[in-house]
């Protein structure tokens, strides 16, 4: 038998080694690809878990709003808020959620009340300057806000109109109408995001780590465990008037109301119902005119004899403006910050402190603005102003729901603006981050 030459044996060994090396590379590549696919799969699974946990928290809060809109607790202004706090944290099968908002230097459980702020779309916009002048709102910026809202293209003194916005890169049109979102203020000439957002750069109403670390990461902030949210801590574009009632039934529009329905719902007689309908049909009339200070009713004729309970029902169950108009809302006297309330009452610190004392000393909060008419310091002029600005119920909330996967490796945050002025409850703004 002839033995193979040594050169042939060496070639065979080299071929075998190359084959082994190539096989090892292929196996390593397959393993690496599998590991990457597994990692991507775990990340996708974690993302799905976190997203749906955040969504579950949002839906739990919306369910509470819907229930309390249809089944209100008239003698407890905090009933719905307490139940929303109860569902602010929860778990799904594989993840958990948490709903918080930061205000007045601390975290609060549950969603943020948009009615704790002044609606920039209200006609009494002079209050904006009163509130924000210490925060850097100058006359020219106020004029530019007015020009953005008004329907014409005529430039007011210090303002800006269509020609200015079309000269920008890229060009865009001014709204020439009411603000649809609060963030739209950033489009107004001369107003900077730093003024509006302050430290809350992602507009989630929460104090995030990068918003409390000084200069280490964007944005610039003071590491004081407080979220300075700029102008947005005072302003909103979302709140709407009227909406939820004390009975859970739709509001009665006075100018087209059935007197029999008015009498039954409000506990008044037919003559009072007819007089109330006539009052609602007159242009310029407001429900606040029916209430006197240090008394009960400021009406005339049949309306002069309305009791406090009947006046409460008028405020809680009727409306002069159609809900389809979605007019800018009032501020909730139970959730407005103490500083903002004092800003609305310049020179009347004693009255502001009395209102705050009443609010804070009652577990049920203030359930009727008519309670304020008993305060000695309240004048008819101040009552008319406060009752045009304040309410005791809220329709619109911002829910910031943060979902975390079971492993804790991934978080998804949902920020949703929710309106319960009609049922079913509507989501009017939604974003994930």
What does this protein structure show overall?
By secondary structure, this protein is an alpha/beta fold. The protein has 3 domains: 50-114 and 395-432, no CATH class; 122-177 and 179-236, Ribonucleotide Reductase Protein R1, domain 1; 252-391, no CATH class. Helix content is 37%, strand content 13%. Helix 7 (259-266) crosses helix 8. The radius of gyration is 30 Å and the shape is elongated. The model has no long low-confidence stretch (mean pLDDT 87).
Broad shape: elongated
Count of separate DSSP helical elements: 12
Helix content: 25-40%
Number of strands: 13
Instruction: State Rg.
Output: 30 Å
Average pLDDT rating? 87
N/C terminus separation: 77 Å
Written as H for each helix and E for each strand, in order along the chain, the element string is HHEEEEEHHHHEEHHHEEHHHEEEE
Strand content: 5-15%
> What is the domain total for the residues?
3
Tell me about the biggest sheet?
7 strands, antiparallel
**Low-pLDDT segments:** none
SS-derived structural category? alpha/beta
């Amino acid at each position: 038998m002839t033995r193979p030459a040594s050169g042939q044996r060496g070639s065979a060994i080299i071929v075998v080694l190359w084959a082994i090396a190539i096989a090892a590379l292929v196996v390593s590549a397959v393993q690496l690809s599998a590991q990457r696919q597994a990692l991507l799969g775990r990340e996708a699974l974690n993302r799905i878990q976190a997203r749906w946990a955040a969504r579950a928290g949002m839906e739990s809060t919306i369910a509470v709003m819907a229930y309390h809109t249809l089944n209100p607790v008239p003698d407890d202004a905090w009933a719905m808020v307490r139940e929303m706090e109860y569902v602010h944290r929860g778990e799904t099968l594989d993840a958990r959620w948490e709903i918080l908002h930061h205000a007045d230097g601390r975290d609060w459980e549950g969603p943020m009340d948009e009615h704790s702020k002044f609606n920039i779309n209200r006609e009494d916009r002079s209050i904006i300057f009163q509130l924000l002048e210490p925060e850097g709102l100058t006359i020219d910026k106020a004029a530019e806000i007015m020009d953005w809202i008004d329907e014409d293209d005529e430039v007011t003194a210090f303002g800006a109109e269509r020609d200015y916005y079309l000269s920008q890169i890229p060009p865009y049109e001014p709204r020439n109408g009411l603000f649809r979102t609060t963030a739209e203020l950033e489009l107004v000439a001369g107003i900077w995001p730093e003024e509006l957002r302050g430290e809350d750069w992602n507009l989630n109403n929460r104090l995030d780590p990068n918003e409390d670390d000084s200069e280490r990461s964007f944005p610039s902030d003071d590491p004081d465990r407080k979220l300075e949210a700029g102008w947005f801590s005072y302003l909103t574009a979302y709140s709407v008037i009227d909406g939820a009632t004390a009975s859970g039934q739709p509001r009665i529009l006075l100018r087209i109301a059935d007197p029999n329905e008015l009498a039954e719902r409000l506990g008044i007689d037919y003559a009072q119902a007819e007089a109330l309908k006539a009052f609602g049909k007159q242009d310029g009339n407001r429900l606040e005119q029916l209430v006197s200070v240090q008394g009960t009713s400021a009406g005339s004729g049949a309306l002069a004899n309305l009791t406090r309970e009947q006046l409460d029902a008028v405020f809680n169950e009727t409306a002069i403006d159609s809900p389809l108009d979605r007019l800018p809302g009032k501020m909730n006297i139970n959730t407005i910050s103490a500083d903002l309330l004092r800003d609305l009452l310049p020179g009347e610190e004693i009255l502001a402190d009395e209102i705050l004392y009443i609010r804070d000393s009652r577990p049920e909060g203030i359930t009727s603005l008519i309670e304020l008419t008993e305060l000695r310091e309240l004048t008819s002029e101040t009552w008319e102003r406060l009752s045009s600005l304040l309410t005791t119920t809220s329709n619109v909330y911002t829910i910031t729901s943060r979902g975390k996967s079971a492993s804790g490796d991934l978080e998804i945050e949902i920020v949703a603006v929710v309106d319960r002025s009609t049922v079913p409850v509507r989501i009017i703004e939604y974003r994930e981050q």
